[in-house]
Design a protein that fits this description.
Chain A: InterPro entries: 2Fe-2S-bd, 2Fe-2S-bd_dom_sf, 2Fe-2S_ferredoxin-like_sf, 2Fe-2S_ferredoxin-type, 2Fe2S_fd_BS, Beta-grasp_dom_sf, Diverse_Oxidoreductases. Chain A: It comes from Streptomyces meridianus. Chain A: Keywords: 2Fe-2S, Iron, Iron-sulfur, Metal-binding, Oxidoreductase. The complex is a heterodimer of chains A (204) and B (813). Chain A is built from seven helices and five strands, in the order ββαβββαααααα. With 204 residues, chain A is α+β, with helices and mostly antiparallel strands. In chain A, strands 2-1-5-3-4 form a five-stranded mixed sheet, with helices on both faces. In chain A, β1 and β2 form a beta hairpin. In chain A, α4 crosses α7. The longest helix of chain A is centred in the last third of the chain and has 20 residues. In chain B, a hairpin with a 5-residue loop joins β17 and β18. In chain B, α6 packs across α7, α11 packs antiparallel against α12 and α18 crosses α19. In chain B, strands 4-8-2-15-12-13-14 form a seven-stranded mixed sheet, sandwiched between helices. Among the domains of chain B are: 194 residues, Aldehyde Oxidoreductase, domain 4, CATH 3.30.365; 182 residues, Aldehyde oxidase/xanthine dehydrogenase, a/b hammerhead (Aldehyde Oxidoreductase, domain 3, Alpha-Beta Complex). Chain B is of the alpha+beta class and 813 residues long. Classes of the chains: A alpha+beta (204), B alpha+beta (813). At the A-B interface, α4, α5, α6 and α7 of A face α1 and α18 of B.
């Protein structure tokens, strides 16, 4: 079958999709986006977490056909997603993703032609949560990282000042085997603090 | 993938006069006062692969793709022990999209492999010896096609009697699982189903026992833990025009894989070229081959690239696990609290194939006493062949099982004597100069008592926060967490302590070397170093540390880490807490050789410009040659010009000795590492739910080359120990079948299960080791488990002699 979906703001079309394929398989093997990871393919580890119409989901548990006509954000699109949110697409900074909102959710259009893109050797634009994971030492083997980033970014989108218990609850579906989670907590706290400092700096 | 790690160095720019004399060449120019390069050892520099890992661009082995690529799949045995009476692959072969099906009969060369014993069939050879043993391979154009074709391979099995424990393994009439053993331990074991036996005998136990005022014994059991690395076993084999194969693979030791794969393919080692792909964790589970040989066989058979990626279900069958163990311990002590003797027996279930069982036995035996001074010791450790899943390396490697038992014993003896358990441990703690039960005198710091003091001195987390915190109370911090199963009723607190000892590096006379190739050249007027090793970066941060070492030794800012492959000599395994010590040592050693070459070149070119070239102690710092007084003599770029220095050297730590087969005496280990934990738990005694509130750790790391990474290792290791304490176990049924091969049924700690882990890092240099460092990765995995269980005992008053502790062990239901 053919599946049409929007991934990271770009319309995508996957052909010859077998009905049993997951959204994760289509992203990784058909659309050249292997950033979402295949650690359990049972919906238990969260490594494949993506935003589906804004809602964080395990893409391994979403049948490819269920993604027809819908908007997907993966770790590869997280920096652009965060940048567009900062630019006002989600002006309140606390735009949660309730069901009603999720149903209305639309991906933003891709960057205009000619917009500067990251070049090899140039500093890569990262989402604040991505930078915080690097700075806090939250990355070891890194296999859980893409899913955790998508989940943590979504947490900070709806809760700019999460308590530790909030962070633990939001990330409880994402397994990490290397870090013992302490540095991951540090990273989310760091991203939240930086965002608050930036907001305070703007006098908001 | 090259990762270039650049830390900006800001040189002070004070101009300095240089004395110019007439000389054969031009004088060095543009010198400034020296300043050290940033990003050297001791700093928490950031990972060179961090950006790739957070953007999703880092290429893990399961992410690889090749034009015309096929997918491989492995058919595995549903039986733990059975004879294969027939195999029919015709229906599978007829499946559209299938390119090849292979069984044992299709193997081109060697049919067995193994890390230490060559006892593991590439594909089952008429008998299967464990549930999940590979029987046949399929290559197809879609992974689901391969899976479905494998289901169409018809295999008839005739079940055989099972060997499942010590009684069934060592019975006189037990089925002998490997009747043709020719390994180096075979002549010395009392039964062919015993892989290896290592006694440790020291002092006079009988005489000591007579002097003991109290004698305390106990039986303990450790369940089968899984490494549960998140990146599944995977790799891509690409057939080459020369008849060889290129394998891109996630592993812990490229060269050990190569040594085992090449004979299976019937190829010389230089026709099997291996490159490390991104590795999603390892923890010992990638020491043995999994799909490596299988993917290469299918690629050579079909002439097409073949990728194999296990899913989580298959991963539970695709690698060895931590040995489950039964341990019997007896300690004697005087009334004033001195340990006088230890008798112990440790039985490790090695499963169907040997893997690294023999080395695990050596560790369990030689570390069985723990970090205590005990003069009279009589210990025996053995590993068995059974029809259970094969067991081998996992973080802690034999020391984890022993630590659970001896630490439970320490609490028991202290209680018997009416002593404080921490003071009792401190009274008997080993120190630098203590003789191990192997007779090896520990010749570097062993701050066991101090580590205990430090964890005990840490502030306690507030008690009964659900009452004391008022508004801030959070139900999610209670046992049961998000399940909201208690508001504090039935919840009791406990505190437990433990300390452990782990060896660093490969032991018992193993030639445990590493190799580093270091290149220094000037690129666009900037000196750039390239470090090339075969070290498997599995997440531990070795690549970060290698760049730090190169900056420190060569005084350059820019260091490129070359991809790990077999075009450079072996780095040994990313195991045994050894890589920073051994491959770090190799990088340091090669950098030193490069530095000597630079100084030779500098003396040749500029020696006549400044007397310091001949007289002073010279260093490389800030991109320059400088005197030990900090005076800059020449820029590295000017010394090098268009010449590159490129040196590959092997490096060895001091040798170890095999342990005596009868007494276990010998200089068996390179180095020891120590960690202590204090666990604070709250237990819902009605439901048997344990919430670990805090798990504080103190560890001596000798020298923290990268403090951020060191703390990450300690917290990660601590959490794996927590998992073993209260949740992680592969359950094997009476029929030898694995019951819980999924993350639904095999639970590892989530962020909700994991407490705050404050870490106190001690740095007491080991003068034998590079920079004084001590291997970090494993020690925190040891003491974490017994500390948590001690805390649960403290809370509940239960004896709890088995891990993982399950709710029913607490409720008694």
């Amino acid at each position: 079958m053919r599946v049409n979906l929007t991934v990271n703001g770009r319309p995508q079309q996957a052909d010859d999709v077998w009905e049993g394929e997951s959204l994760l398989y289509v992203l990784r093997e058909r659309l050249g986006l292997p950033g979402s990871k295949n650690a359990c393919e049972q919906g238990e580890c969260g490594s494949c977490t993506v935003r589906l119409d804004g809602v964080p989901v395990c893409s391994c548990l979403v049948a490819a056909g269920q993604a027809e006509g819908r908007d997907v954000v993966t770790v590869e699109g997280l920096a652009v997603h965060a940048e567009q949110r900062a630019a006002g697409a989600c002006g309140t900074g606390t735009c949660g993703t309730g069901l009603d909102e999720a149903r209305r959710w639309q991906a933003l259009p891709p960057p205009a032609e000619g917009a500067p893109a990251a070049q090899p050797g140039q500093p890569v634009a990262l989402a604040p949560i991505q930078q915080a994971f690097i700075d806090a030492g939250a990355v070891q083997c890194g296999f859980c990282t893409p899913g955790l980033l998508v989940a943590a970014d979504e947490l900070l989108e709806r809760n700019a000042d999460p308590s530790d218990a909030d962070i633990r609850e939001a990330l409880s579906g994402n397994l990490c085997r290397c870090t013992g989670y302490e540095k991951i907590l540090d990273a989310v706290r760091l991203a939240a603090a930086r965002a608050q400092a930036a907001t305070a700096g703007q006098g908001a | 993938m090259h990762t270039t790690d650049t830390t900006t160095a800001r040189d002070t720019t004070t101009a300095r006069d240089t004395t110019v004399t007439r000389a054969p060449g031009p004088a060095p120019a543009g010198l400034t006062q020296n300043s050290a390069v940033r990003g050297g050892i001791g700093e928490s520099t950031l990972r060179p692969d961090g950006t790739l890992k957070v953007t999703g661009e880092f290429a893990y082995a399961s992410d690889l793709w090749h034009e015309d690529m096929l997918w491989g799949f492995t058919l595995r045995s549903p039986h733990a022990h059975a004879r294969i009476t027939s195999v029919d692959v015709s229906e599978a072969l007829r499946t559209p999209g299938v390119y090849a099906v292979m069984t044992h009969d299709d193997l081109p060369a060697a049919t067995r492999y193994g890390l230490e014993f060559t006892d593991t069939p590439v594909l089952a050879d008429g008998v299967v010896r464990y549930h999940g043993e590979p029987v046949a391979l399929v290559a197809a154009d879609h992974p689901e096609t391969a899976r479905r074709a494998a289901a169409r391979i018809h295999v008839d099995y005739d079940p055989l009697p099972l060997v499942v424990d010590e009684a069934t393994a060592l019975a006189d009439d037990a089925p002998v699982l490997h009747p043709d053993r020719d390994d180096h331990h075979a002549p010395y074991v009392p039964h062919p189903n015993m892989v290896h036996r290592q006694p440790i005998k020291r002092g006079d136990v009988a005489a000591a026992e007579a002097l003991a005022d109290v004698v305390v014994s106990g039986e303990y059991e450790v369940g089968m833990q899984d490494q549960a690395f998140l990146g599944p076993e995977s790799g891509l084999a690409v057939p080459a025009e020369d008849g060889g194969v290129d394998l891109y693979i996630a592993t812990q030791w490229l060269h050990a894989d190569l040594r085992q794969i090449a004979p299976v393919l019937g190829l010389p080692e230089d026709k099997v070229r291996m490159t490390l792909s991104g590795v999603g964790g390892a923890f010992g589970g990638r020491e043995d081959l999994s799909m490596q040989a299988h993917a290469c066989l299918l690629a050579l058979r079909t002439g097409k690239p073949v990728k194999i990626v296990y899913n989580r279900f298959e991963s539970f069958f695709g690698h060895v696990h931590r040995h489950p163990a039964k341990l019997w311990y007896e300690h004697g002590a005087t009334r004033d609290g001195r340990l006088v003797h230890l008798k112990a027996r440790i039985v490790l279930d090695g499963g169907a194939y040997a893997s690294s069982s023999a080395a695990v036995v050596g560790n369990a035996a030689s570390l069985s006493v723990g970090p205590y001074a005990v003069d009279n010791v009589d210990v025996e450790a053995v590993a068995l062949y059974t029809n259970n899943p094969p067991c081998g390396a996992m973080r802690g490697f034999g020391a984890v099982q022993a630590c659970f038992a001896y630490e439970a014993q320490m609490d028991k003896v202290a209680a018997e004597l009416g002593m404080d358990p921490v003071e009792f441990r401190q009274l008997n703690a080993m120190t630098q100069g203590t003789a191990m039960p192997t007779g090896q005198v520990v010749d570097s710091p062993a701050p066991v008592a101090e580590l205990l003091r430090r964890v005990k001195a840490m502030p306690m987390p507030p008690a009964r926060q659900w009452e004391s915190a008022g508004e801030g109370a959070d139900i999610r911090a209670l046992p049961g967490g998000l399940s909201n199963t208690t508001h504090g009723e039935g919840v009791v607190r406990g505190v437990g302590y433990a300390v452990g000892i782990k060896n660093v590096g490969f032991s018992e006379g193993f030639d445990d070397y590493s190799t580093a190739r270091v290149r220094l050249e000037s690129v666009g007027g900037e000196p750039v170093a390239t470090v090339h090793t075969a070290m498997a970066e599995v997440g531990q941060g070795g690549v970060t540390v290698h760049a730090q070492i190169a900056r420190t030794e060569l005084g350059v800012t820019q260091v490129t880490i070359h991809p790990a492959d077999t075009r450079v000599g072996s780095a040994g395994s990313t195991s045994a807490s050894r890589q920073t010590y051994v491959t770090g040592g190799a990088v340091k050693n090669s950098c030193e050789a490069v530095r000597e070459r630079v100084l030779e070149m500098g003396r040749r070119k500029f020696g006549s410009h400044h007397p310091a070239w001949a007289t002073a102690e010279l260093r490389l710092e800030g991109g320059k040659v400088v005197t030990d007084g900090g005076e800059a003599l020449a820029g590295l770029a000017d010394v090098l010009e268009d010449e590159a220095i490129d040196i590959e050297l092997e490096w060895r730590h001091r040798p170890t000795q095999a342990l005596d087969r009868q007494t276990g005496q010998g200089f068996g280990h390179v180095q020891y590492s120590f960690a202590a934990h204090r666990a604070v738990v709250e237990v819902d005694t009605e439901l048997g739910l344990v919430k670990v509130i805090e798990l504080a750790c103190a560890q001596d790391v000798g020298k923290a080359l990268n403090p951020l990474s060191v703390i990450g290792q300690i917290q990660g290791g601590t959490t794996q120990g927590l998992g073993l304490a209260v949740m992680e176990e592969i359950v094997v049924a009476e029929d030898g079948r694995v019951r819980n091969p999924s993350f639904t049924d095999y639970l590892i700690p989530t962020i909700l299960d994991t407490p705050s882990i404050p870490v106190d890092v001690l740095e007491l240099a080991d003068d034998n080791a590079p920079y004084g460092l001590r291997g970090v990765g494993e020690a925190p995995t040891l003491s974490s488990t017994p500390a948590v269980v001690a805390a649960v005992r403290d809370a509940t008053g239960l004896a709890l002699s088995r891990v993982p502790v399950r709710p029913e062990h607490i409720t008694g239901t």
